[in-house]
Design a protein that fits this description.
Layout: H1 2-9, H2 24-32, H3 43-60, H4 62-69, H5 71-90, E1 99-102, E2 111-114, H6 121-124, E3 139-140, H7 155-159, E4 164-169, H8 173-181, H9 195-199, E5 203-205, H10 217-220, E6 225-229, E7 237-244, E8 247-262, H11 266-276, E9 291-294, E10 306-309, H12 329-344, H13 371-385, H14 387-400, H15 403-409, H16 414-442, H17 446-449, H18 453-475, H19 481-509, H20 514-520, H21 524-545, H22 562-589, H23 595-603, H24 607-620, H25 622-626, H26 629-642, E11 649-660, E12 669-680, E13 685-688, H27 695-702, E14 710-715, E15 718-719, H28 724-728, E16 731-734, H29 746-756, H30 761-774, H31 792-804, E17 810-813, H32 822-835, E18 842-845, E19 857-858, E20 879-880, H33 882-888, E21 891-896, E22 899-904, H34 906-913, E23 916-923, H35 928-938, E24 943-948, E25 951-957, H36 963-976, E26 979-985, H37 989-1004
Helix pairs in contact: 3-16, 3-29, 5-16, 8-12, 13-19, 13-21, 14-18, 14-19, 16-18, 18-21, 18-22, 19-21, 21-22, 29-30, 34-37, 35-36
Length: about 1000
């Protein structure tokens, strides 16, 4: 026990980390002895193999690829159809300039005359207006239910007679009050008859303004026009009938009391107007006002006034257009005229009146909406980002099914993998977006047609490069395709909506700092949206003015964010490219010292006490293992090998342990407990054990699927902790589960992995043919069928052939013959025997002891290979018969509950754990006692090992019983009772396994 503890505590002196590389002569000598490292495949051969495989895969998957590429074409067609539908709707008479047959000269037939005077509000936008109408200037008056009241009475609200409050303030209260009183006139409403008399009144409306003044909506609506006077009589109103620029107007004009209210400061006015903005609450001073003034330091010689106009009903929060200016000119004229009267006196008759307002003339236009440019930023962002989940799914699929790891274990490096997949994604994305832009321009979408194609290409090309890097980076954090897809689609839709909401509002609001917008654009979705937004705005402007869209010269405009966006995208791509490559490399090789593993360890809970618990359990198990001389000898061999520079051993396992930590309160699972093995070149080793014995966990550590909890292993002097890249160059694997591409054929699989092993030309073709023949995949054209059409046994045979293709020095095989029929297993035995001539083979099995119903031993198949150098094969083998293990294996070891129970040659194990005959006899149930008496008579200490429905088995020691005595006793029994069947067998390897496994399980209990 002390020796075992001491060996565990000291470090090996000549581990791979401390060894110097072998010299050329030493390496040649090792190769001659069968221990030389295989020549790693060149970068070109790896790239060529992966490229050919991907081209074949894409050829088979071309329908899905074509469907993906034509998605943008379909979307362009959809946008074009929607654009045409909208244009057709806007081309109807409802939106065309109104026309009427008019007798212009009054002497003859009428003439068709078109113009704004014959149009409705819907038609006015398309009419030519050489001489716009002159409209009286109006104030924005609050609606009756929202006007301010002076007391708690609500009677004026009910009768809709509340005054229009006009708060004011200034440094000189007397002057300010006088000016405000001069604003109102008491002209009787009945005297209103023409434009001149209208302009002398302070008119207002509670109807919102519009974006154009060609038609004043207050004069053509059903709502009344208000006149603000100092006092109003009950129901003081009049109907005005007049003509405004050839437009007959008949409007009701109502009197509204204008109520000036003195306030002590401009701040008080601001608070009142703020509280009443669109709220209309009942209460003194908490409602809307018509207008407000701050006369500041005005006096008889200086007129300095600050006017506040009412823009309550102008929706200017989203579309920044100066609607409020349509209602501000009258308020400025009114206060200026009142100040003039203050200076000259009321009786002077001097007035400064605003008679009318009018727009500038305009040409006839066709009412259109550039629908594609209007919805372009958000819609096209989703179209471009749609490639992200496609690429992420492709990468995570190979990760989930361990196809990436399978390729690495056969020699594929990260460089060729990145080059081929990056190039494929780049070509796919480029074709996708080029078709999108070209087809969109051909069918007339202004978003693509008007903007410079060079800017579009640079923008889209730089972003798809960034998107590819993001796909590689994101793939390192996902292990399931469904999870990756769900999160990817949530990201592209959620980030698109967020970018559309924030970026548009921040840019159009004009109040958000521009440098913070640039910070937001560091997020890829935001930078993509900003670039699309700029393209959209320039396209809309081009459709309205006829000018070209965005050009290279426009990038110098400080308001144009396209240049900043492209710089951000390119810099971000250059920064994230090495980061993504490192994370991908760390995840693929399981680098425990990498940043990715450090992050994962920080997220774990209490890693320290778990490691302590593992070591404590291992130390407690020392005395159990030390009791077995063959295990002790194997450990001593491992110690000796670790002290040598060139030992001639292919694989050395030094105290390997693997613990799966329990979750949700479950205890830890100890899969492998201190396994030590030394496997020389040219040896065939079989590993047997029941389910859960730790065989698959051991293989997972050796092939890089999982990291050991403690301990180490060396394959051709390379450590599995730090040198898996070098180990992969000389390794072949037949995993427990088939890792195959469903779209490729068996021949194409072997050609791909053969090229990874540096085979080419006729040597590759010959090796592939021999591999297919050895596993019976040439019959019936199975070699050229896609794997998705294979049965389970055919897939298994293909996996075996893959593990042996090329110059693999070390081959791991985990239960390779699972699912094979007896005929296939027998044919594979021949291939295994031929491979044993220059290979070392180790086989595993999931055998069950007799207490478990399913007792089976498996076997592995090794096809003979042409043009393969002498090598060592460390195969993990699932035997379905002990006959197979005994015939093929030089040594056998049995694992139970993660521990190595015994190891040695089959005959040695049979001699050590055998030494008895097995007597089996079947009778009817009433004669079972006689059979038991017979066995005890032959040997008093005979042990019953099986009893079921009249069939019994007894173990009889060879040293204490003779075969002749057994035959004589059975013949005597047959004279007295009916014996249905009986037999006497020597100890088999199956019996050894059952005895060792049952004994180990009993001792654990």
């Amino acid at each position: 026990q002390s020796k075992g503890r001491e060996r565990r505590q000291r470090k090996p002196k000549n581990c791979r980390r401390e060894m110097e590389p072998l010299s050329g002569a030493a390496a040649a000598a090792a190769a001659a002895g069968g221990g030389g490292a295989s020549r790693p495949p060149s970068f070109a051969s790896q790239t060529n193999a992966l490229l050919r495989k991907n081209l074949i895969f894409q050829k088979r998957n071309r329908k899905a690829t074509i469907r993906l590429i034509i998605v943008p074409i379909y979307l362009c067609v959809l946008l074009s159809v929607l654009q045409r539908v909208i244009n057709n709707l806007l081309d109807k008479p409802k939106y065309k300039c109104g026309c009427m047959c008019v007798d212009v000269n009054g002497t003859g037939p009428c003439q068709n005359v078109c113009g704004i005077q014959y149009s409705t509000l819907d038609q006015a936008g398309s009419c030519p207006i050489p001489n716009p109408p002159e409209w009286p200037a109006l104030l924005q008056v609050p609606r009756p239910e929202y006007r301010a009241i002076q007391d708690s009475s609500e009677s004026c609200r009910k009768s809709q007679s509340c005054p229009a409050a006009i708060p004011f303030t200034g440094a000189n209260e007397t002057l300010s009050t006088t000016v405000m009183q001069n604003m109102f006139t008491d002209l009787p409403l009945l005297n209103i008859s023409d434009n001149a008399s209208i302009s002398g009144l302070l008119l207002g409306t509670d109807m919102p303004g519009t974006s154009t003044g060609f038609i004043e909506p207050a004069f053509i609506s059903d709502l009344p026009i208000y006149v603000l006077q100092s006092e109003c009589k009950s129901r003081d109103s009049v109907t005005l009938r007049t003509t405004i620029d050839a437009i007959n107007v008949q409007k009701e004009i109502k009197c509204v009391q204008g109520l000036p209210l003195w306030r002590n400061s401009s701040r008080t006015i601001n608070e009142e107007t703020f509280k009443g903005y669109r709220k209309g609450k009942i209460g003194k001073g908490i409602s809307e006002v018509a207008m407000a003034y701050d006369f500041q330091d005005s006096n008889e010689k200086r007129f300095n006034v600050l006017a506040l106009y009412n823009s309550t009903y102008q929706n200017i929060s989203y579309v920044p257009m100066p609607f409020g200016l349509l209602r501000v000119s009258r308020s400025l004229n009114a206060v200026s005229n009142a100040y003039l009267q203050f200076l000259q006196g009321q009786g002077s008759g001097i007035k400064m009146l605003l008679e009318f307002t009018k727009e500038m003339p305009k040409q006839a236009t066709r009412l259109t909406i550039d629908f594609s440019s209007l919805i372009g930023p958000l819609f096209f962002e989703w179209v471009v980002a749609l490639l992200f989940p496609v690429m992420l799914t492709y990468l995570v699929y190979e990760k989930q099914h361990k196809l990436r790891t399978m390729m690495k274990m056969h020699g594929l490096g990260n460089g060729p993998y990145w080059i081929i997949y990056y190039a494929y994604f780049l070509i796919l994305s480029t074709v996708y977006l080029v078709l999108f832009v070209i087809f969109g321009a051909l069918i007339g979408l202004n978003f693509f047609k008007t903007n410079d194609y060079g800017i579009q290409f640079v923008f889209f090309f730089s972003f798809i490069n960034l998107q590819i890097v993001l796909s590689f980076l994101a793939a390192t954090f996902f292990s399931k395709v469904n999870t990756a897809q769900a999160i990817a689609y949530l990201y592209i839709f959620g980030s698109g909506l967020m970018a559309g909401s924030l970026i548009r509002n921040f840019l159009e609001g004009g109040k958000f700092p521009r440098h913070w917008i640039t910070v937001l654009e560091i997020i890829p979705a935001f930078s993509l949206y900003r670039g699309l937004y700029e393209l959209s705005q320039y396209a809309i402007r081009a459709s309205e003015t006829g000018n070209p869209g965005i050009q290279w010269s426009d990038l110098n405009d400080h308001t144009n964010g396209m240049r900043d966006v492209m710089i951000i995208i390119i810099v971000e791509w250059l920064v994230l490219l090495p980061v993504a490559y490192y994370f991908d490399y760390a995840a693929s090789v399981g680098n425990s010292s990498g940043l990715l593993s450090i992050i994962k360890r920080l997220l774990r809970k209490n890693p320290t006490w778990r490691r302590i618990a593992v070591n404590e359990v291992a130390d407690n198990d020392v005395h159990v293992e030390m009791e077995k001389l063959d295990i002790i000898k194997e450990r001593e061999t491992v110690d000796q090998v670790l002290q040598q520079r060139n030992s001639g051993y292919a694989v050395v396992c030094d105290d390997l342990k693997k613990v799966y930590h329990g979750k949700d309160g479950n205890p830890d699972k100890y899969a492998v407990r201190g396994l030590s093995l030394a496997l020389p070149y040219g040896e065939c080793l079989g590993i047997l054990g029941p389910n859960g014995a730790g065989k698959s966990s051991f293989i997972s550590m050796m092939i890089g699927f999982s990291k050991p909890t403690s301990g180490n292993a060396f394959v051709q002097d390379f450590s599995i902790h730090t040198d898996m890249e070098n180990i992969y160059n000389s390794m072949g694997v037949c995993p427990q589960n088939d890792m195959l591409w469903e779209m490729l054929t068996g021949r194409e699989h072997l050609q791909f992995y053969g090229r990874l092993k540096s085979l080419s030309g006729s040597a590759l073709d010959l090796a592939v043919e021999e591999s297919l023949r050895s596993v019976n995949l040439l019959l019936g054209g199975a070699a050229d069928k896609q794997v998705r059409k294979y049965s389970g046994g055919m897939k298994r045979r293909l996996s075996i052939a893959i593990s042996l293709i090329g110059d693999a020095k070390v081959v791991y095989m985990d239960e390779p013959s699972t699912g094979l029929d007896p005929a296939s297993r027998k044919s594979l035995w021949t291939a295994v025997k031929q491979a044993k001539q220059d290979r070392a083979i180790i086989l595993t099995s999931n055998l069950q002891p007799m207490s478990i119903p399913s007792l089976a031993l498996g076997h592995s198949c090794f096809p003979s290979m042409v043009a393969i150098k002498p090598l060592v094969l460390f195969g993990i083998f699932a035997a379905h018969s002990m006959e197979e293990a005994e015939v093929l294996c030089d040594r056998l070891c049995i694992m139970v509950d993660g521990r190595l129970q015994c190891i040695g040659r089959p005959k040695e194990l049979i001699a050590r754990y055998g030494g008895y005959y097995v007597l089996t006899m079947t009778t009817s149930s009433e004669f079972e006692r006689e059979v038991e008496d017979l066995a005890l008579k032959l040997l008093p200490n005979a042990r019953k090992v099986y009893h079921l429905s009249g069939t019994q088995k007894y173990e009889l020691s060879k040293q204490q019983v003779r075969i002749a005595d057994v035959f004589m006793a059975v013949e005597n029994l047959k004279r007295r009772v009916e014996v249905q069947a009986w037999g006497l067998a020597d100890t088999t390897m199956e019996d050894v396994f059952v005895k060792v496994a049952t004994g180990a399980q009993s001792s654990d209990e």
